Batch of 2 targets.
Target 1
Amino acid sequence: MIKKNSPIPIYYQLGEIIKNKIESSELKPGDSLPAEREYAEQFQISRMTVRQAFTQLVNEGYLHRIQGKGTFIAERKPKIEQALQGLTSFTEDMKSRGLKPGSKLVQFEIIPATSYIAAQLGIQEYGPVYEIRRIRLADDAPMALETNYISANFIKGLTEKIVNQSLYAYIENELDLKIDQASQVIESSVASEMEAEFLDIQPGAPVMLIQRHTFLADGTPVEFVQSSYRADRYKFKIQMNR
Ligand code: 16G
């Protein structure tokens, strides 16, 4: 129950109590939450503290408020869990989960490589590079905004139609090149206005930035990719041995 002389604030303790009820399905999506007054009486705390707990859970996505109606348990879609061991494509990842992979093409052009992009791809500055920006979809819902940079002198014949399907399938099956390894860096960030619009989230909502460098077995760079994944829909799992 609530400990009044704890270093943990009371609103936080109440938030944890409500979260437990949601996680154990005692409170189910769509249920309305008891009124602030009821919690205040039950735990002998102020209504302001109860409101603070509710606000915290609204921000975390556990609850939502409907003007004039009250506070309800939010519908929370399970996060997609991606293992970080294998080198897979988005299309493969979604299919292996029984989800329908998809893309919405935002940009497809050949640009002269900036010095930064050239260095990432091991090519000359101003060399021709495909810049491909796609919203990646799972069962038609936006999961990530992904921008690929690919040397146009190396990977030839890309079209809008191809990148609306699987890029890796084209590289491996049509060009007969074997994608071998990649290194990936993941960091947290918040959605910019543009990312928020494409990903159907609020500006400032948490996202995970992923940078991937992908190579053939002989070390030739295949792609440099910058992606923003929705942090409310994605989590990463890594297996560790000691
Ligand atoms: C994944 C890769 C991306 C790759 C794409 C190919 C991450 C962070 N990125 O999204 O680097 O270009 O798959 O997918 O996992 P595709 O074959 O479906 O086009």
Note: Residues 89-91, 146, 148, 166-169, 210, 212, 223, 225, 227 surround 16G (CB under 6 Å).
Target 2
Amino acid sequence: MWGRMKVSGAIAWNATKGWVRPRFLLALVAGILVVGTGIYLDQQAEGINEQRLRSSVQDQISLIRARLEGSINANIQLVRGLVSTISTEPDLNQERFAALAANLFEEDGQLRSVAAAPDLVVSMTYPLEGNERAIGLDYRSAGAQSNSVFRARDTGELVLSGPVSLVQGGRGFVARFPVFVHDGADVRFWGIVSAVIDIERMYTQGGLLDPDLAIDISITDRSVASNSLPPFFGTALTDNPVTAEIILPPGRWEIAAVPKTGWHRDPLEVWLLRLAVVIGGALILLPIGLAGRISKDRQRHLQELTQREIELEAISRRLGLALDSLQIGVWDMDMETNEFLWDDRMNEIYGLPKNGFRGYESWRERVHPDDIDRAEEQFVQGIRDGGFVAVYRLCWTDGQQRTIKSVATVYADAQGNRKILGVNWDITADMALHDELTTANALTEARNVELEAARVNIEHNSLHDSLTGLPNRRYLDEMLTRNACGGFGGTRSIALLHIDLDRFKQINDTLGHAAGDAMLVHASGVLRENSGPNDFVPRVGGDEFVVLTSAVEGELHLGMLAEKIVKQMRQPVKYEGHDVRFGVSIGIAAAEGEEIDVKRLLINADIALYRAKGRGRNRFEFFSEELQAEVVRTKRVADEILSGLERNEFVAWFQPQFDAHTLEVVGVEALARWQHPTEGIKAPDAFLPIAEELNVVATVDRLILEQTLAAVARWDAMGLNVPRASVNVSLRRLHDEDLIKGLRQLAIEPGRMSFELVESIYLDENDSIVSWNIDQIKELGIDVEIDDFGTGYASIVSLQKLRPTRLKIDRQLVNPILVDHGQRQLLASIVDIGKSMGIEVVAEGVETMEHAAILRDLGCDILQGYAFSRPLSSEKLEEFLRAKAWKQAS
Ligand code: C2E
Ligand code: CA
Ligand code: CA
């Protein structure tokens, strides 16, 4: 693949590492070499210089040595001649001596004087002048001179001593020659000849005092081996002097010399040389240093380069991996030369063999004919815009069709050549997937639509009544929970009509459920018809509906609406040939304002409905504050009744009954009274309706019965004649399955008790329990009376069926008989019916004795009323019975 970078960074890296030491070593070695060479050269120069100096010094001292040696030897030789002469002429005198000696002295000669001392006493000198003082010097007692004299005598050898300060002045060497005289074979010591050599002249002639002399010279006497005398000429030289020996007849001198300037070279020369060395060294080291620096730079560059190569390698590898794993092909085109770079993956994508790409034509051949124009246009446009993203199809030679995505960007390379770099990848699978997904998505959407429809349907079902199609109780509850009716009908004024069908149960029971359903559908239709488009009309119970509507038009309008509904509902409905009738009661509650509590509204409407039903059905009632107050009061009374039952506040009062003819007491009617803890005695109308609602009337009945039985027993015990007592029995009590069981336990004496039942009981003739209970009551010897006879729907047939012991004409019928003739006749016929059926007739509400007389005449058997006595507590009754006051009244 062309895009791959060849990186050999690792090798270069290692190599550069290895370079560090040699470079440093090279510089070190070069430095050492240069310094060494410098030192060597310096020392070499020093050595050569010293050598040169030495040989020059050597040359000079050789000359001096030669001169000194020559002159001393010459002088000694000269004196030896004299000595030889003396040994042959031991007796010479001063003149002879002077004559002989004179030959020794010449112009510029070094001999200053000669003296002869036969037997060690100086007796002759030459020249005499100036040396006169020496004459007569006895060497044996001459102090310092004696030693050398004795040594010369004893050794027989010449002794040279000095330099010594001369008596004549100045300094000189003194040579002492022993003189022996040969006398036949006998040798006799004659004496000593001393010659003084002028030291100054000797030095001068030896060249030692030459002011131009460039060396320092010292001369030391080395005649005696262990001698460590200081030099007699010059100062001791320690600086490695050049030496030479002056061999003298009586010993040797060492002449030592060093250059005046010392062995060391001229500092200038030294420094010039050193400078030359430094320059030379610099010329060597500088390039090395430079090379080193360059090498270091190079090394750094190499390192950087290596680092970059490593990074590049990493990037390249990642890119390679990315391209490989994404299967992306890369191409690159030089826009000046139209030269293409086209990698292997591109060939794969285009279905070309390896290296099968032949430039633009290859591309063109492969692009789908339908896509080629667009692809080319996108390419051209992309070059103008700096890049493009394109999708097109390819047709491979084997017929395969692929879809690819092509992304390219225009750029300028390092040389400023405009190029376009692009990538291609195969998206055939993606497209297929995309298509699949699109299909799947469409399917899902369709399914979602179905589901939504189903959901809507379910929701609708859950919130609607299937029979009538109206919203259901749940729907209403939800609305109430959300209090969502706040802005009902666009107003802030809402009315709620609670509608309850009357007689629905009977229809259901008598005509069947289908009829009931039909009535409900009918009723819902009526409600729909009468409600507006914004009204909400749910069915909230078996036979209950609600109309939620705007109250903005006021109570009158609502009343009219309710009236209309009531009226329409009363119309008979045809069902399977029957004219079915039912009615409705409606409770209405309305509210206005920003915050309307619709739940409250429902409760209020319910209260009103209750009132409507209470007031006789087929009517509507508005909820009002008074109604509310009444409800509250009722509630309070209900509570009081319940606690009153617990506290035995209900007591039996008794109203006596009289024989119409004899006016004897024939019985009493027990009437319930409530001994209210704060309000005193209350009559049944103050508590019975509420007790009815509380379903406790049967309990009251039972209590009253028990109290009555107890009272009867007491009266019996008291000897008061109360033949019979009657109690009022509520319908509910007659429905009680356990009534008879309870009655049996009371062990009621047959014939002493009577149960007053209201007429309406007979409508329930179907109820087997009621019939059974009534039969059983009779069985127990308890009389059955029909109470309030003449007010309800009782019929002659039911009288026959029930066969009561007595019937009790309602006081409403009794009351008008004084004035109303027709009423009297009605009573007369009731009495006749009773008589004909063997049923005793009781008249209640007998308020005056006039009434009593008429009723007696009409044939009533028994009379009960205020004319004789009001209902009395048992104590009062007992008093009454004892007093027999009524007899007087009558
Ligand atoms: P009711 O059975 O018709 O009882 C007779 C009612 O007529 C009594 O009213 C009594 O006080 C009243 N009354 C008697 N004489 C006259 C009269 O000359 N003129 C007028 N205007 N009224 C007269 P009370 O005691 O108020 O009872 C009312 C009703 O309450 C009773 O009517 C009865 O239906 C019911 N009731 C009374 N006690 C009981 C009871 O223990 N159980 C049941 N279930 N009902 C009872
Ligand atoms: Ca009664
Ligand atoms: Ca009555």
Note: Residues 787-788, 808, 810, 844 surround calcium ion (ligand 3) (CB under 6 Å).
